[in-house]
Amino acid sequence: MVIERFERIFSVKAIKGCDKLSDLILGLFGEQILEFIQSFSNDIIDFYFGVVTTFGNTLPILIVMVLLYYTYNKEYMLKIIYLITLSACLNSILKIFFHNPRPYIYDEKFKVTTQILRETTWSASGYSFPSGHSQTQGTLWGFVFQKYRNFSILVLGLVLLISIPLSRSYLGVHWPSDIIIGVVVGILVALLYVQIDKRYGSYYTQKSDKVKIFLGFLSSIILVILGFGVVYLTTFLFGSALVTDLWNNSDLGVYPGIFGGIIVGKVFEDQYINFKIYGRQPVSLLIRIIIGFTSVVLLYFFTDKVSGLFENSQSIVPWVSTLVDYCSYFILAFTLALIIPWLFTKIESVFLKGK
Q1: For the chain, does the N or the C end have fewer beta carbons within 10 angstroms?
Q2: How far apart are CA 292 and CA 62, in angstroms?
Q3: Around Cβ 282, how many Cβ atoms within 10 Å?
Q4: What is the reported pTM?
């Protein structure tokens, strides 16, 4: 039994037939644990996990981070945005290398359909190991817990850190090994980021604007190149049949684009706008929440549509869609970092004049 299991783990096949390499990390009981988690299914748990899992999606996280950046703590939230974006880049690369199928693709018995606001059969794009939702939560709270130790934040963090990863297995889109390793990798990324920021953060802040812009472009392009390299390395190691699916199931351009756009936009914003948080004035906060929320949602959906137009080109020129993703998400992040702050400071100058 164990020997057969090892043979299945190491038998490398074309994407959808590829067995779960990540089972080796957890043990050899991934299917049994997932069946146990899903055995608790009922309407109440369906509703809870169906709602909570959406909190780990890209758009809700982006909305919260940007609004806190505009209204709460500019510099601290900027560090979180950098950190989560870098963690997401690493997650994309790891998923490409392992290219493990999700549970519901591996076996239809793990597919989950729930009734929340409407009937939903849960699915997810890309590969399974490690879980992006889980790694993001590990990264976020691994960083936040080092600064904030009050009871409310601790409770909120622990609830989300447990609930969001667990929801991914319950809904059949991730193996237990995906969520466990995802959280661990996320926490390690946060710890490493803090140490690097302590030692080398001051060096970056002392650089000229031109150097910062150059480093922003350079670092984001290096992240894309690393992703390209992993695609071709994985294809070389596991077979040429993988290459099309590897391109189609990765976000190699998305997070490097966001990373570069934020860095470059922030440099220009510091130079020409340098917006401040006006002591939590209600009018200022309301303006920033309305404009910020609307801008994030509209920019995100527009960028997503633009990226979707080029998905079919992957089968012709595999890297075109990745470069389009990079450019479109770079513009999205640049706009949020520079144009939107400029817009609401202009509006605030009218409403807060004389205050």
Answers
A1: N
A2: 11
A3: 7
A4: 0.84
